Amino acid sequence: MEQNQLHHIAQQFKIKGNVVEVKPLGNGLINTTYKVVTDGDNPDYVLQHINNAIFPDVDMLMNNIVAVTNHIRSKKETAGVPDIGRRVLEFVPCTDGKYYYLHEDKYWRVMVFIPDTVSKSGVSPESSYIVGETFGDFQAMLADIPDTLGESIKDFHNIEFRLQQFHEAVAADKCGRAKDVQDIIDEIEKRADDMCRSEKLYREGKLPKRICHCDTKVDNILFDKDDSVLCVIDLDTVMPSFVFSDYGDFLRSAANTQPEDSPEYDKIEFRMDIFKAFTEGYLKTARAFLQPIEIENLPYGATLFPYMQLVRFFADYLNGDTYYKIQYPEHNLVRSRNQLTLLKRAEAHIPEMVAFIKEQLA
Ligand code: GN1
Ligand code: MG
């Protein structure tokens, strides 16, 4: 995009100083991101094009994000935390008060750039403990948010909805693929009832929804130069969900000894060292607000997410691969078998998970 257009967009927001340069930043897969460099001692900013195809309701999306960051900021102010500007993201409104700007059918937003931070990726027990602790703290800070947040992706982690999409895919069988994968259909069906446990408990008023991040990974934490945690980022999927959305989805990716699309199913294990480190960190910060029914169901949460991802990959395979990008025709089938294997491995560890959690709370 042209510099003058980017300058024009940046200037619609209430930023301090004059824009010197707008340059590409990072390599996000969903949003396109730039750094806005300003003159003098003024802060720099992050300018982001919001992917409207994935997040159709930008108004709701930004309301969620601003409510969440304001709530976290006021908690930190009350607690007298120093250097708050580095410990929570700060979004900048436009001159008309909105937190996004519509320019030629594209939505843009701006936040203050936090200098001198470190990003991490990859999985180890040490980093998993920190991710657990950080996201448990994130949920804890938001457990009493007064605002009502919307679902920035409707029914994102609703397993009943995902199963309905799967049933529709099987019935339509658009590519004639169902006949060769009956074993997977059976594996999904036989667990369906139990896997909908969270939605049933919710309807019965026994399980709460809370504000969750819904993309829990170490990449979504900013660290300081000394390796201490600064803040949680990538807030687009922050929405009301069951705590399992953060707990289970992290383990789904981090505890798998193989990448989620590896065809080497016999090498797939569910890493209990990662489970233990993550759970210990998570319970440290989350146990104060978690209800017994949530704690009791954490092992269920650890199996729900491999199951949900299996259902999603597999429905996409039956539908002819319209959602997840594929590199070869059977890619979504391989992903499905991978997640099914991970699910079975996780299920085998449930008694050990239960015992570990009990031990942690003793
Ligand atoms: C998608 O694009 P990425 O990798 O952050 C998906 C997640 C899935 C994941 C599986 C908006 O996330 O829910 O768990 O793929 N995000 C969306 O790889 O559908
Ligand atoms: Mg993501």
How would the blueprint of this fold be written?
Elements: H1 3-10, E1 19-24, E2 32-38, E3 45-50, H2 58-78, E4 101-103, E5 106-112, E6 117-118, H3 125-142, H4 159-172, H5 182-195, H6 197-203, E7 210-212, E8 221-224, E9 229-232, E10 239-241, H7 244-254, H8 272-286, H9 292-296, H10 298-318, H11 331-348, H12 350-361
Antiparallel strand pairs: 1-2, 2-3, 3-5, 4-5, 6-8, 7-10, 8-9
The protein binds 2-acetamido-2-deoxy-1-O-phosphono-alpha-D-glucopyranose and magnesium ion.
Flag low-confidence runs. Answer: none
Q: Based on helices, strands and strand pairing, what is the structural class?
A: alpha+beta
DSSP helical segment count? 12
Small molecules bound in the structure, each named once: 2-acetamido-2-deoxy-1-O-phosphono-alpha-D-glucopyranose, magnesium ion
Beta-strand residue fraction: 5-15%
Q: Terminal Cα separation, in Å? A: 57 Å
Task: Specify the oligomeric state.
Answer: single chain
The side-by-side strand order for the widest beta sheet comes to 1-2-3-5-4
Sheet having the most strands: 5 strands, antiparallel
Mean of the pLDDT scores?
Answer: 96
- DSSP strand tally: 10
Structure write-up:
The model has no long low-confidence stretch (mean pLDDT 96). Strands 1-2-3-5-4 form a five-stranded antiparallel beta sheet, with helices on one face. Strands 6-8-9 form a three-stranded antiparallel beta sheet, with helices on one face. Strands 7-10 form a two-stranded antiparallel ribbon. The longest helix has 21 residues, at 58-78. The chain is built from twelve helices and ten strands. It is α+β, with helices and mostly antiparallel strands and 362 residues long. The structure holds 2-acetamido-2-deoxy-1-O-phosphono-alpha-D-glucopyranose and magnesium ion (MG). 2-acetamido-2-deoxy-1-O-phosphono-alpha-D-glucopyranose binds next to loops. Residues 29, 54, 153, 260, 309 line the site of 2-acetamido-2-deoxy-1-O-phosphono-alpha-D-glucopyranose.
